[in-house]
Design a protein that fits this description.
heterodimer; A: about 180 residues; mainly alpha; Rna Polymerase Sigma Factor, Chain: A; Arc Repressor Mutant, subunit A; 2 domains; 8 helices; globular; B: about 170 residues
């Protein structure tokens, strides 16, 4: 099912569930990985992903089609992930820099990347938060600058500069050892 | 009908071509910027439990098929409110009995025969919301983490979690 068919199906009570399943099947993995990249471990990412899709279901009629469907889903997932991280920080009542409570890739049982991939993750972690998100969207999700702009609200020119700069920083980090 | 189908068909084909073209451009861009990162891109390293997505979809559908309840700010406090009502009824009954006994010894109100519902109605009509705090006794040991001592951030979180966007729009009107 393409996006138009999914949206049409979701506006019809008889086909709503089938269309919603098609939407989830089409985008679940991309959204899951996007959430995981925000340093959220699998169990919590599961909750965030479910909340994302519930919100999508309840607000699908508000989607006006001004951006790509995936961009809209992406924004919802990002907001849910940020909300989760804020709540976690408040519950733990510690600084987000405290290593004993923050996400540790090495301790993540649902990550089995090789040394190079671990180093890549470490390099991405050195970027400021927004630049990380832009980099991840372009590098892993292969989103166009136009879609990223719709998702984060930064100009296309600014995004290009940010992405190119991020790639250079990461490459320098990887070549250091 | 045929024209509509034809234009949708063409649109979907162009969209596929556009998407492939875009992905190629993104990959070319990356290869030019950093061949090293282009090579690393192939696998990311996150793994997903077997059949995870299938069960996730079922959980989501179960939740969306539940009837969404509009949250009242005080819905979460309903059991607390019941407790407060019961405690305040007891206090007022005792106070009322004491008063009646002292002012009119011949007539004692048979408060035991008055239903809790009637008493609750009386309290609703005569006790202002902010007076509830005064009626709560320390030894009731209420769980104050349920909202009485929340700061504005926690209230913000609660509102975001419990209110549907439609409800928020109504509140803001």
């Amino acid at each position: 099912m393409n996006d138009e068919q999914i949206l049409a199906g979701m506006h019809n009570t008889d086909t709503q569930e089938q269309a919603f399943r098609a939407l989830m099947t089409k985008y679940q993995e991309r959204l899951y990985l996007h959430i995981r990249r925000m340093k959220i471990e699998h169990t919590d990412a599961d909750d965030v992903l479910q909340n994302t899709f519930i919100k999508v279901f309840r607000n699908i009629k508000k989607f006006q089609g001004k951006s790509e469907l995936y961009t809209w889903l992406y924004r919802i997932a990002t907001n849910e992930a940020i909300t989760f991280l804020r709540q976690k920080k408040r519950r733990q009542s510690t600084s987000i820099d405290d290593e004993s409570t923050t996400y540790q890739l090495e301790a993540d049982t649902w990550f089995d990347g090789n040394e190079a991939q671990r180093k890549l993750k470490a390099a991405i972690d050195t970027l400021p938060n927004k630049q990380q998100r832009v980099f991840n969207m372009r590098y892993f999700d292969e989103m166009t600058y136009k879609d990223i702009s719709a998702a984060v609200g930064t100009s296309v020119g600014g995004l290009k500069a940010s992405y190119h700069h991020a790639v250079k920083k990461i490459e320098d980090f990887l070549k250091r050892d | 009908m045929n024209r509509v189908f034809y234009s949708k068909f063409i649109h979907s084909k162009f969209k596929i071509i556009y998407t492939v073209e875009n992905n190629n451009n993104i990959q070319n861009e990356l290869r030019e910027l950093s061949p090293l990162l282009a090579k690393l891109r192939e696998e990311e390293g996150y793994k997903v439990p077997h059949l995870y997505f299938e069960s996730m979809q079922d959980k989501v559908l179960r939740q969306v098929n539940e009837v969404p309840q509009k949250a009242s700010l005080f819905a979460r406090f309903s059991w607390m409110r019941g407790l407060v009502v019961a405690a305040s009824v007891a206090v007022l009954l005792l106070a009322g009995m004491f008063l009646i006994q002292n002012t009119n010894k011949t007539q004692v109100a048979d408060l035991e025969n008055i239903s809790t519902g009637v008493l609750a109605m009386y309290l609703d009509e005569n006790v202002e919301d902010w007076d509830w705090d005064l009626l709560v006794e320390d030894d009731l040991q209420l769980d104050l983490s349920d909202g009485l001592n929340w700061d504005s951030d926690e209230w913000g979180d609660y509102i975001e979690e419990e209110f549907l966007d439609d409800d928020l729009n109504e509140l803001l009107l």
